[in-house]
Each structure stands twice: as C-alpha cells, then as structure tokens.
Design a protein that fits this description.
The protein has 257 residues and is mainly β. It contains one helix and 16 strands. The N and C termini lie far apart (78 Å).
C-alpha cells in the first residue's frame, strides 16, 4: 500500500487535547479555574450574518458575516466535598448561573477554551474567550451507582474574542490559588473554628497561614483544605497557601472574634 507520509515533526492530535476554564474572578481580574474530569468537549464558532443581497445576485442568497458567536458543550463529573457538601468550584459556578435569581449578567459565565496537547507545543492561536449562558442536565440518574455528572450546554452571548493560547504544558507546576473561604454556618470563623479553603493546585500544600500565622490544616483534595482559625481580633485577615511551586496570592476574608 502506498501511503503519503507526514512531514517530520508532525503528529496526530488526540480527541482529549482541549481544555476549558471558568473565570471565578472578575473580567478585569480573572481567576481561571480549569474544568476537571470533563469529556465530550467541543466548541462551535457560529457566524453572525446580515442579508446583503442585491439585484446583481439574480435571486441567489447573499449573506455577509458581520461577527462570530459560539456554542459549546461538554460533560463534567460532579465531585463533591465530604466536608462542605459543595461541588468543585467550577461546577458551582455553572450551577450559580442556572438559579431563578440568576438574570441578566448574573446568568452569564466567562469562559476560555484552548488547545492543550499531551506533548509538544500547543497551537498558539487555537483559543478563545467569551460569555455564555448555561443549561445543565444530569446525565446519570439510574439506581446502579453510576458516577454523577452533568451535561453542560453553553450558548454564547455576543461575539467571542481570539486570545493567545494560555496552556503552559503538563509539566509546569501551577501556583496554588485560593478562590474562597467558607464555614459550616456561613458566618466568619472565630478562634478555633474550622474553615474550608476552596481553590486549585492545593494538593501539595506545605503550610496554610492566616494573617501570616501558620495554622493546622488538612488537605482534602487538590481544590480543598480545612484549616483552624488562630486566636486573633475580629476583622479582615489575609489567607495564603504555600506549596512546592510557591505561595498563593492572599485572599482577604472577614474573621470573627
């Protein structure tokens, strides 16, 4: 059999070599959290057109592209914290956009997607960012203990933008990120109270500090720590986590007496 060979240095891509992140911060100061344990991910660019037909077209359609929107879909496993009962923060971000109180801008999520190959360099321009509304449906609802998961549909709001591919590679150690701090009753933690830290890249945490004071902590998983609030005065305090990759940016939260 005669086969046309690929040029040296080329390889076949894999179906799983794409990722999508949710912005858990603001538009101006984004905190990008990758969606973990996903499958079936795909984005479809959608042309926005306007009728430009003239007599010269002799009755044939003529629509000009004036912009590009997007639609996307994927399936995500809904891993749940045994401590807080909450799902991973990126899944919670999706759920927040589907509540009855989520209207207008509150119903939109800022996402980015990109090529993330198993090996070699990522495509530098195979990436995009845009706002979308969210539709969710549970996939596995049977009685046999199937892994709980959501089918996610994203419908783009307005045009999406081209961005530089943010993927740094599988071997790059990511700095820890603290995205939120919660307590069992939702009130600020007092002296000796347990508090839960939600974030990412927390699995190898070496120390957890509140107001620069190291506190006892337990690593639950890559996105969850449980710490003990030290003795101190009521008010806002910075919380940081340190791993082998470095120190997280401080997240300032209120604490009780």
């Amino acid at each position: 059999m005669n086969r046309v060979t690929l040029p040296a240095g080329f390889t076949l891509g894999k179906s799983f070599e794409y990722g999508i992140d949710a912005n858990l911060g603001s538009r101006a100061n984004p905190l990008w959290q990758p969606f973990r344990r996903i499958s079936g991910f795909g984005v479809t660019p959608t042309p926005i057109t306007t009728d430009a037909a003239t007599y010269d077209d002799e009755g044939a359609p003529n629509s000009q592209v004036t912009g590009w929107g997007f639609n996307g879909a994927f399936t995500v496993q809904v891993n749940r914290s045994l401590i807080t009962g909450l799902f991973l923060p990126e899944v919670e971000a999706l759920l927040a956009r589907t509540k009855p109180s989520a209207t207008g801008d509150d119903a939109e999520i800022d996402v980015r997607w990109y090529h993330k190959p198993k090996e070699g360099k990522p495509h530098p321009l195979e990436a995009g960012r845009g706002n979308a509304t969210v539709a969710l449906s549970r996939v596995n609802t049977g009685p046999a203990g199937e892994i709980d998961s959501y089918a996610v549909t994203l419908t783009g709001v307005g045009a999406y933008e081209e961005i530089a591919n943010p993927w740094l590679g599988n071997d790059v150690d990511a700095l820890p990120v603290i995205l939120g701090v919660t307590t069992a009753d939702g009130a600020p933690a007092n002296d000796g109270d347990l508090f839960t830290v939600n974030g990412r890249a927390l699995l190898d945490t070496l120390s957890l500090k509140v107001n620069a004071i190291s506190v006892p902590f337990t690593v639950v998983n890559d996105s969850t720590l449980v710490g003990v609030m030290p003795v101190g005065d009521a008010g806002d305090v910075p919380i940081t986590a340190t791993t082998t990759a470095g120190v997280s940016q401080a997240l300032v939260v209120p604490r009780g007496a």
